[in-house]
Amino acid sequence: MLAGLEAAELPADAIEVGRIADAWGLKGWFKVLPYSADPQALFSSQSWFLLPAEKGPRTFSGVGKLSITESRRHADTVVASAHDLADRDAAQALRGARVFVARANFPAAKGDEFYWVDLIGLAVVNRDGLGLGLVKELISTGLQTLLVLAEVQEEKTVERMIPFVGIYVDQVDLPGRRILVDWQPDY
After folding, report:
1. How open is the CA angle 52-2-82, to the nearest 5 degrees?
2. Which pTM value belongs to this model?
3. Residues of the chain with pLDDT > 90: what percent?
């Protein structure tokens, strides 16, 4: 295992939140490209789990755990330091690694805010009780976010998109694993 990395198991609730882009400075700091515009999950966790890059050279194998000593925003990236990661060469060896954080370490969402990862797989039902499909993914169009649903109809999968905005979404019930919407199947 590389310097600074401790062999570990990936937590069952691990979520991929970014990847290490490069070393930053001379003292072992590294730059992370977060997958979210608001990378609070990175800031709220003192343990990051790494998997090797999917493409390019692999400098380690298995799952490594980094004990983060400091992290902060730097333009549209995050820069961080970790225990026992002493110099630029050690940080450079992490380049391309995928960064995971345990979902349990995410900060609590406020009021009517939701983590996209929590919406994936929820059943979407309209006001008439008709199932419209399961949330397959979410897409940000810049102006709004779209729920992309997948529903199996007559042995083929049909996709449907619903704007994830208050005018169409009546309720998100995370414990009940469903979203209630004002939407008809023929829209």
Report:
1. 90
2. 0.79
3. 78
Domains and their CATH numbers in the chain: 6-105 (2.40.30.60), 116-181 (2.30.30.240)
Rounded CA gap, 78 and 62, in Å? 24
Q: Which of 139, 134, 104 is CA-nearest to residue 120?
A: 134
Rounded CA separation 70/30 (Å): 11
pLDDT, one tens digit per residue, over 124-152 is 999 999 999 999 999 988 889 999 999 98
181 near 165, Cβ under 8 Å?
no
Tell me the three-class secondary structure of 48-90, residue by residue. Answer: EEEECCCCCCCCCCCCEEEEEEEEEEECCEEEEEECCCCCHHH
Give the residue among 151, 149, 48 at the shortest CA–CA distance from 101: 48
Q: How far apart are CA 169 and CA 153, in angstroms?
A: 23
Residues 32 and 80: beta-carbon distance below 8 Å = yes
Question: Cα–Cα distance between 66 and 186 in angstroms, integer?
Answer: 49
The SS3 assignment for 118 reads helix
Side chain identity at residue 111, one-letter code: G
β-strand pairing of 145-153 with 131-140: antiparallel
Q: Is the pLDDT of residue 4 over 80?
A: no
